[in-house]
Design a protein that fits this description.
A: 183 residues; mainly alpha; Rna Polymerase Sigma Factor, Chain: A; 8 helices; 0% strand; B: alpha+beta; eight-stranded antiparallel β-sheet; 6 helices; elongated
Chain lengths: 183, 226
């Protein structure tokens, strides 16, 4: 049976082999990378963020308290801070100094990061649909075609196009629920 | 929950606004009277707004496989540096320890691979993608594998400054030694650790960063002289 995340972090404290770290990396690095890429729009910076997150994880494994947050939440909190740091480094506009604007800036950053998480989750959810379901979503939602136009374009009977569209949306709804995605 | 028997397959297209105008009108009238279809439509109603957050062709980004090695190498190196000193050995063990130390010292002299000082060197020569870059690699054995001290000049920086070190094993397998960054003037100095034993490889290659699992273009290459 696979060890829980919290157990892996606990073992990481005394580990020198890297086995626990590797397992945590495989569980979380892909989604953290997706989040960072969505927030930063730059693969290189996002990869640096992922590396920093795991460096913080092993350096501060002793500070982790499973009663306060799940490992996932903890890793996302570290990633958020690293992304904010990366944004600051990349910022070209002069720093604001008055408190009111600083608070507004922090709220904006939070909202932008929430959107980045959501964007990555929606991308991941869409990627889990079958190719046929993705295709009808792409043509109907993103392409703005009607069911009849899709049927004409693809040569698939219109009844099938309609049922595919309905199944695709139902499946997407289930994936969103499973990922706890809310608008 | 799904819609009713007669209109279930119309609900999804209706939510996306992808029915013909007369069908849209008919569905609106139907939803007013059908609790099953109206519940289904409500449960799907927020999906279009969520999908609008991303582009049609958005793909899940894939981490370069070399990053995992990089993270683990960094971990192993840090943990090795912070390892606590060993406790004193019991008195009775001292003679055995002394003998072992003497043997180890002899082995260090005989087998240079067990030392921490550089014992192999490679001059790195530019390949077509290297634009005249040149450099050196000095190799030493460490507990985690091989430490490569790298120096480079004239690295092309126009299309990114991130490079990767690779050790090509004698069996042809490429082992990632990690990533380093060139300065704006094309120079780079880095110490990287590859999880491969010295002596198992004779070629060092510098490439552009990997992308989507594909190794970047080769920039420099050199043969190690042990």
């Amino acid at each position: 049976m696979a060890s829980s995340d919290a157990t892996l972090v606990q073992r990481l404290r005394g580990d020198r082999s890297g086995d626990e770290l590797r397992e945590l990396y495989r569980r979380y690095a892909p989604e953290l990378f997706g989040f960072a890429t969505s927030a930063l729009g730059d693969r290189e910076l996002a990869e640096e963020v992922v590396q920093d997150v795991f460096a913080q994880l092993w350096r501060h494994a002793n500070d982790y308290d499973k009663r306060r947050a799940s490992v996932r939440t903890w890793l996302y909190a570290i990633a958020r801070n690293r992304i904010i740091d990366a944004h600051r480094r990349a910022a070209v506009r002069p720093q604001r100094t008055d408190d009111e604007h600083a608070l507004e800036g922090a709220a904006e950053v939070d909202a932008a990061l929430d959107q980045a998480v959501l964007r990555w989750q929606v991308t991941a959810a869409l990627s889990r649909l079958s190719p046929q379901h993705r295709e009808v979503i792409r043509l109907a939602h993103y392409g703005g075609l009607t069911m009849r136009e899709i049927a004409d374009k693809t040569g698939v009977p219109i009844g099938t196009v309609k049922s595919r569209t309905s199944y695709a949306l139902r499946h997407l709804r289930l994936i969103f629920d499973e990922m706890e995605i809310e608008p | 929950m799904s819609g009713c028997r007669t209109h279930a397959e119309q609900v999804g297209p209706y939510v996306l606004g992808a029915l013909e105008p007369d069908e849209m009108d008919e569905m609106r009238a139907h939803l007013a009277d059908c609790p099953r279809c109206s519940a289904e439509a409500r449960s799907l109603a927020e999906l279009p707004a969520l999908m609008d957050l991303v582009k049609a062709d958005a793909e899940v980004p894939v981490l370069s496989p070399g990053i995992e090695d990089e993270v683990l190498d960094r971990f192993v190196r840090e943990r090795a540096r912070s390892a606590p000193r060993r406790r004193r050995w019991p008195r009775l063990a001292i003679p055995a320890v002394a003998v072992a130390a003497l043997l180890a010292a002899l082995l260090v002299v005989i087998v240079p691979g067990d030392t921490n000082t550089a014992y192999a060197h490679a001059d790195l020569w530019s390949l077509p993608a290297g634009g005249g870059a040149e450099g050196t690699a000095d190799v030493a054995a460490v507990s985690a594998g091989t430490r490569v001290k790298l120096r480079a000049d004239h690295l092309p920086v126009m299309n990114g400054r991130t490079y990767e070190l690779w050790c090509v094993r004698n069996d042809g397998r490429w082992i990632n030694g990690g990533r380093f960054y060139a300065q704006a003037d094309g120079t780079a100095a880095a110490e990287l650790t590859a999880r491969v034993k010295p002596g198992e490889y004779h070629v060092v290659v510098i490439t552009r960063r990997s992308d989507r699992g594909l190794r970047g273009a080769e920039v420099m290459r050199g043969k190690l002289n042990y």
